[in-house]
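Internal tracking record. Fields below are filled automatically when a chain is submitted to the structure queue. Please do not edit lines marked as system-generated. If the sequence contains nonstandard residues, flag them in the REMARKS field before resubmitting.
Queue: standard
Priority: normal
Entity type: single polypeptide chain
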Amino acid sequence: MSADVVSVAPEVADLLVTGIGELTTNVSTPDDVCGTIHDAAVLVRAGIVAWTGPAAEVPDAAVETPVLDVDGAAVIPGFVDSHTHLVFGGDRSAEFVARMAGRPYAAGGIRSTVAATRSATDAELRARLRALVAELRAQGTTTFEIKTGYGLTVADEERLARLAREVTEEVTFLGAHVVPEEFQDDPDAYVGLVAGPMLDAVASHCRWIDVFCERGAFTPAQADRVLAAGAARGLGIRVHGNQLGPGEGVRLAVARGAASVDHGTYLDDVDIAALAGSDTVLTLLPGVEFSTRQPYPDARALWDAGVTIALASDCNPGSSFTSSMPLMIALAVREMGLTPDEAVWAATAGGAAALRREDVGVLRPGARADLVVLRAPTRAYLAYRPGVPLIEGVFSGGRGVAGSALSAVRRS
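SYSTEM-GENERATED OUTPUT FOLLOWS
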């Protein structure tokens, strides 16, 4: 880093990042999924990528632009975490301890979080939400989705969606998470509530609708009813499927044209073929397998079959209480068979595809200038050095939001 610095990055949306040893653009080629440029620079104008290329070819338009010289570090797009549950009350550490002692994971644990969330105040939920957002940003995430699903009443789902919308435009209505205790004897009545009054209350806050199509949650017929209602209201479709065992979640998602189906722990050849022949992204959530001791999906076979893969954290208090996308990359490489390049792509461009976004997860002209400076010479360090804080700087729309690199921006 240059010694001639001023702390201006948080207020700057024009920026020249230079001295990049390895730039990941995600403008893929047959031989390089990450679209790598070595000895590179990125020019940002008004929060948008204006130019990328060799540092020796920086255009004249960069004159008098604030400069960040990263001194040979690697730069990647900001992570796109397309599956989180960040608005909740309570704690389930005791459940985790019991699971590590041998008790199997079941979806019923969600109900304990529902009870805690219902009893929490807006201020309590907002404080935890903002702390988690700061945590994930510090780890390089610049775009993230948040699901409701821990309220399961009309009023509580509306407030979760409203709170989530304060921090992200990617809000997903997951009223069909599980059937709450008060509807255990009449789950179809609850489905009617979700597809009617509850959807009416949350729709203005949400971009997406989701459903947990799984044993112990919702049947394929119930799930399809919820998705149809959401689609009729103009919401995009997402599905939780094939997490706890084989099922129809993946096929339902593909048939409905879902942007993504998430988990995919148990897939058969028909599921894989359906995904490979569609534009539905399979979002893998390795933090869940890590935290529940379920088997890891074979991402290598899925990638080779032509399935589009995203990686996401599934940050939630029960089955994956982590906000770390670098950890997801390391697990995908070590346990699921992806190469470091494929895992980084899945955690950035793959997540963008799962959100049907073309403006994030990539560093090319016209994209939002979301970029992460690594304290490393190559993106492979994200898997090579697991658990090590490698995030030197995080820029969202060209503005610094986290990391020590923010103080190293200098005037030209």
